[in-house]
Amino acid sequence: MRTVTKDTITDVFAGYFGTDTDPRVREVLVALARHLHAFTREVNLTHEEWQKALEIMEWAGRITTPERNEFVLMSDVMGLSSLVDMVNSRADATSSSVLGPFHVSNAPPLAMGGDMKRDFGGEVLLVEGHVRDTAGNPIAGATLDIWQTAPNGLYSSQDPDQDIHSFHGLMTCDDDGRYAFTTVKPVSYTVPTDGPVGEILNAAGRHPWRPSHLHYIAAAEGFRTLVTEVFPDDDPYLDQDTVFGVRDDLVMHYESRPADTFPDGMELSGKVKEDYLQVTFDVVLANA
Fold first, then answer.
1. Which of 26, 53, 243, 271 is a good FRET partner for 124, with 20 to 30 A between their CA atoms?
2. Which tens digits make up the pLDDT trace of 255-282?
3. Inter-helix orientation angle 80-88/70-77, to 10°
């Protein structure tokens, strides 16, 4: 078409696809163009605003590394990551939640009852539970890839003073689907604000805080892999998570326990001399 107008450009775009285009590719790209074009008309997007958006994307590309993905972070703070999680979650399984931009692959093995706290300060947290299917049956041999920030609020990939696998562990559940480990109580922290995501948050008058949490990737043969998080119910940012990751079934209560009740069979058994925290979190996986 030689004469394209603001009212016809979306249909013209849709007509430019080849006859052998994958139907799903066509569906996604046409829908994307339709929404982008409608957005542009709705807000009367200016050349300066369009140019600013391109500069932000270019900036995100320049600072993205294997350890920090600014595009993922941008998706997180815009709510896109959580929305993708929610539309793909199963109602009969544990809710998924954002992976985040700081996951480190190839976590070292974490034995049953093992400890991730090591020499770091902070309150000891005992985490235990089971991995089950939607019928309530234990999933023997399920794996949990677990990670969190250090007490300074930084992930290992952000902090040159930490080992790259600090506060990361890969645990295999026993025949009853049970897991148990100790760590330090997670802390609230801010997402990075020294890049384009920080500029977006500032422009919107939004804070960069996330409530404290533990990250899990739960996997087992024959089941859908689950990426999720666990949040304490007393965190001040629970209702203001800047990446929209909180779900009702992921909010847990940390119980304070006296030191003399710390269980046997753990790496820290006999070494805990002060009150500690305990939380139980069961993971439910859906069939693949």
1. 243
2. 999 999 999 999 999 999 999 999 999 9
3. 70
Query: Dmax over Cα atoms in the chain, in whole Å?
Result: 81
Give the DSSP H or E segment for 180.
Answer: strand 178-184
In one-letter notation, the amino acid at residue 101 is P
User: 287: which DSSP letter?
Assistant: B
Which residues fall within 8 angstroms of residue 209, CB to CB, at 6 or more apart?
188, 189, 190, 237, 240, 241, 242
Tell me, what amino acid is at 96?
S
The Cα–Cα gap between 278 and 154 comes to 23
Q: Which CATH class is domain 75-285?
A: mainly beta
Can you give the pTM of this predicted structure? 0.90
Exposure of 249 in the CB half-sphere (CA atoms within 13 A): 14
Residue extents of the structural domains in the chain: 9-45, 75-285
Secondary element (H or E) of residue 201: helix 196-204
At 2-51, the pLDDT tens digits run 789 999 999 999 999 999 999 999 999 999 999 999 999 999 999 999 99
| Nearest residue to 101 (alpha-carbon basis) of 28, 221, 199, 189 | 189
Task: Indicate the SS3 state at residue 94.
Answer: coil
